[in-house]
């Protein structure tokens, strides 16, 4: 039955196929032919007893053949069952072997864990010894240590009064002239000058953080007056962090380095404020579900919210929330203490050791104790509470350093809460912050005395008499500590090796587990295949039973019909005997009638009925033969219809172009538009036109796009190019944007509408041709991608159509990008793999497509396994071949239609989301790709037929069918989306578009960077650089605008890699500087132009120099690279202005007023660098042509014919007077002024009246002056001064 799957089954059950519809059978077998070909038999077909014997023999032979088929099927079933049993035994044995090996690995893992625990037990005493030695070393330096830090001076604070003789001494100038030595020295454990940063300060604080992690309570205080730098020391800034962040980061790093899988550290934070001896928890407002902790003594304690922190980011977040809860009242900050406590919890699983310690960071209130008369009562109360708490803290520290028996912790709430962090084995660090200016001398001395009292009472390394003793102790401790650390390091290396061995064992376990999973999958697949084969055999057996039952029923019917025929024959015999008797009687009567004339009439009357009865019997026979002939004709018509449908099926691919155009046109409705949309779209572009006449023409646009190299199809249009609008593009854009799935009743209708729109797009591109293909693609790009994006979640589009559209756009992008064209893809052999051959006869329809790893570029790709096996000729197949009349020696295996559909579905599953395969499709023409697939199939599967002659009843070779199925499956899979991601071709198109955009932006960035580093020498170069940078910036903005319009193409839900948009801050700054420089140079040029005279008035010269000074003051707004050019131009202009002689203002005005109009109009300074031509059409045949320019005095100069009637050789050059010359002049006087000018100018300016002439001349002067670039500023000045007031009238 599998051999018939390569064609549609139009045969009726119970009939054998006709070998030739045109064959002519002998006359005697025409009636019996239906009984030979079919199982069902018509009652009208049985006409004689001889044919019934022949039908019995045919039925008996068919029953025997069915029994043989059932026997062969049972044998195959038993064989398959035996194979399944063998495979089950094999997989059970393999599972047992793997299980035993897993047990061995588990035992090794347990031993490694035991060794690791023993090693941890050996390391734990060494770590405790290390902690004890480090604590002894820190205690030897002093349990209470004092650091002093001086902040830098502000600008208005005067000179410094402090000096730093060495690292442990600070010297203060008391400015007391009454004593011999006004300078006083204070000695502390460490002195930090104004130049010391936060990092160097923390390097001396780090040992206290290490002690806190070792299990000892540590408190760090920031003490000093207001504005001395306490808060900066603790908090720091964004670029130079303080002790809060640095201490926790150090704790976190030390905990990570010391933690193992048997021990761990946990941290939590409490933050509260002490104001007027009242506690306010700053974390109480964050979350009510947080745990609380009690702090203080048993008699006086408080409950605070503690928040767990796992990393420095959590710690920063908690501090930020606490600071927000504290508020913004700075006056309150100065009289309140801020206490941040980091609680450290340590737990060891082996020894069961639990340690708790805490690190308290205290930002004390200002130590300003001076109360003035202006202070309010609340301010005085706050200061008294601060003085009380600080005094109590000083008493506690003094008592601890003096080793008194009674420590007054209860004198203040601050010392009560921090009692466990001040005395006993705890460590205390006081960081004194002082102001180095003279105004705060008293507060500085008070703070130094306060901290000196706490330090000098204890013995420390600062005492010179015991330094040698403690140095020896420290050296011994360091030596012992070094030995312990070395031993700990060796043990850690051993633990690391054990962990590595454990990791390798775990990896082997994972590999074995994967093998077990694969074995289970193979077993499950075999079982499912066996079940499917059993079900198929049962169905086959059931069908054969039903056929057997039908045959039995037909045999019973035949027997019944035979009995009926016998009865009919008996009746006919009796009828014949009756008729013979009648004939004899009529013959006797006829003989009697011959003897008499009267008997002739009687003979005629009696012979009529007899003669009519004979034709009647003959007519009955004729009716039976006519029924048989009609039945035979109907069967022939039916066979002809079946053959015609087969031919239509074979020619389906040849009519794809017609059907695609009919289904894609909105005016023509195709009868197959709903039923065959998917089949048509799947066949588009899937066959090679070199090997098949019926090749679909939809492949042509893609291959043409792939071969383009002129770059006409551009994703980003440069310059001012705009996408042209076409009627087809407008129609498609409107149709895609207006498509609303909600208007359709069913998914089938939605799918039909969406696929029709996609086919319209492809048809429009084909109709546009190669010359206009890029225009239509660019015009509908946004609408197409928005439509695909909108319809992807509904999964109603034909994925092959989506692939065709995607490939069109990707190849148009390749045509304009050399970078994308240079991408190398792996050959098609890397994407195909031959499946492992074996004896298994199970169907592969239940299996997923096999994949094997293949390296492609920088990513891991998979190879598609083509699962085709040579079919073994079993007994059943031999019987089938004999029944069909096919020679077994010339028989070759054929690929069935079901197998082709199966391969196509597997290829589609393989291609979904496969971007490497999408790249292969884009960079390789369709015809070449199919040829490579066909070549690989021919090399890998030699048992397949090569040409169409080997296929029975077909016109296409097996290799062609297989390659077409793989191409169709790949094409359909590449266009299928996996929400929330788009299809593979869409991802490739987005990636390529991003690469093109990134390369264009980077290219413009490089050009702008090169231009921004060039130095301009003069105004001309400044203008060129400015124009070039503005052009680059304009192109960059056009690209960014195109990116915003392509948001539907560039947006992916998985993020993807973003478009690299390099920063252009430096280039923008240079452009702004060039714009400012251009303005400055224009003003300098205007000043130089105004100074191009023989003399200047004092007022005007002073104004020019003042303008140059203002321009020099604007130079700081320029970049350093533009300073030389501006400076050089300003200096040159100043030199020119200063070189011009001065004269009195009144004398200058008098000389200027006495200049006659003739002098104004006949100036000899007509040296014009460049002429600009204007043409005035007056309605006559010859227009007026006037050339205009500017001389060195910034005056308007024209060149035109002296007389209009003499255009050749009569040009004159004149300086045009300003419109102010015509004020208070009559019309005749104006004509005298115009007499010395070219006739064309006077004709254009003169009017009937004086006012009309002035207005026309003003407009003419403005038109001519605006044509000259250097005179445009002069026109603006004249308009402001009212000289050209008649221009707009």
From TrEMBL:
Transmembrane stretches, start-end: none
Biased composition (Polar residues): 664-683
Binding-site residues for ATP, renumbered to this chain: 224-231
Ranges of residues in domain Kinesin motor: 143-457
Residue ranges with Basic and acidic residues bias: 684-696
Record keywords: ATP-binding, Coiled coil, Motor protein, Nucleotide-binding
Top-level taxonomic group: Eukaryota
Coiled-coil residue spans: 56-90, 467-508
Region described as Disordered: 590-628, 660-697
Alphabetical list of Pfam families matching this protein: Kinesin (PF00225)
Protein family: Belongs to the TRAFAC class myosin-kinesin ATPase superfamily. Kinesin family.
Matching PANTHER family: KINESIN-LIKE PROTEIN KIN-14A-RELATED, KINESIN-LIKE PROTEIN KLP-3
Name under which the protein is recorded: Kinesin motor domain-containing protein
